[in-house]
Amino acid sequence: MSEQSLKLRMPVRSPEPGWIRLERDHALFQQLVDTHVVRTAMEQVEGGSGQVLLAEKRRQLAASLRITPSVSPYLHKVLEAVRKLLRLEQAVELYVTPSPVINAFCMPLPDGKGLLVVVTSAAVDLFSRAELLFLMGHELGHGILGHHRLPGSALLNPSDDSLRLGFDEVMKLLCWMRAAEISADRYGLICCQDPSIATRSFLKLASGLPGQYLGTGEDFDDQMDDWAKHRIAGEGMDETHPLLPIRVRCAHAFAESDYFVELFGAGEAPPRLSMEGADEACHAELTQMDADPSHIDSLDYAEEVMGFLSLAGFLLAASDDHVGTVEYHWLTQLVGRDLAERARAFAGEAGYEAYCREIFALGAGIADDLDRAGCMKLLQEIGIIAVVDGHVHPNELASLRMIGEALRLPSHLIDVAAKDLGRGEDRRLRLGA
Ligand SMILES: [Zn+2]
Predict the structure, then answer these.
(1) Quick one: which of 92, 156, 174, 192 is 20 to 30 A from 5 by CA?
(2) In angstroms, what is the span from residue 427 Cα to ligand 1's centroid?
(3) Please, where are the H alpha helices in 236-371?
């Protein structure tokens, strides 16, 4: 659908969060809220005083542009259209912040009586009006569903041990965060009313390109299939957002559901799916990124290589001051419990320098036997240990470099592996908290 032909239809009734919210989002949210650590984090953020929110609002007031009808009649109208479509009665403050990266987020106003949305200048510049309806609908959807109540990033990067989750809970949190994005996308779809508009926004988000270079992207899915084919063990499990092609498929499922069709007073085409069917389709898409720890494929190499990988993996796990539960769990799944424990014991006995000497000795033997591509694959497969706890510590990067050097990889290839790790962190910031 072209921008000119976009005729917005008014929903026949108020969109119902209970129907729109993905079942998986609802169920995982409840399970997480029932855990002690998550409740502690929620209390710290909500805390009753609104001071955390006030600090963020002050930051926006100082560094961004608050949208009023006179500051930007265009953006004010887009916001009003979204509010009308979602029948949102609470106050919404919209800010635009200068940034070359397409991004946005939503949080409650400090008084708890409305929502604050921040959109980057790149999003405003690159997105068409219809795509901005999708983006703002998505962000307000997060707000309406109260996703901000569960502070995901604070739990992924805990400031102290009282907020540290175990492996299963971190994975559950990430699964919930990805499901929450799909729920929010559904609000975006109610506003832009056409999954092809959502797809165009995802093409822009993926590429940073303006519309003149982009088509409709019907085969964007193939990118996903190719990713699935080439991914290394466990890649995807640590993402806070679903891969964009997954979001495209989920958007289509919702737009073809009876709920969506009936929300606009029954359309020309009968719905293809029941709402349960749409939820099931989304569930099937999302599970591709799931972190079922029993599904981590263990590595299978010759004994000498496995010995090297266990030492290298433990070094990475121990690089950010302490050996995290999640990292150690991964190591045991990748190399087996025996080898992981042997590496831990050796680290305790040998001391850092002797430990590193052993890594170099084993690495040299492997580099004699394997070609560069083989060594690179080993570095990437074990490098995952550095990201599984949700952040990459500078010491972990230094250890990764050392492991690459032990395998006699040239520095430009080690850079590739290091960038792969950093990429995981960048993506974390995309499209909203
Ligand atoms: Zn989002």
Answers:
(1) 92
(2) 12
(3) 244-255, 258-263, 275-287, 303-318, 325-335, 337-369
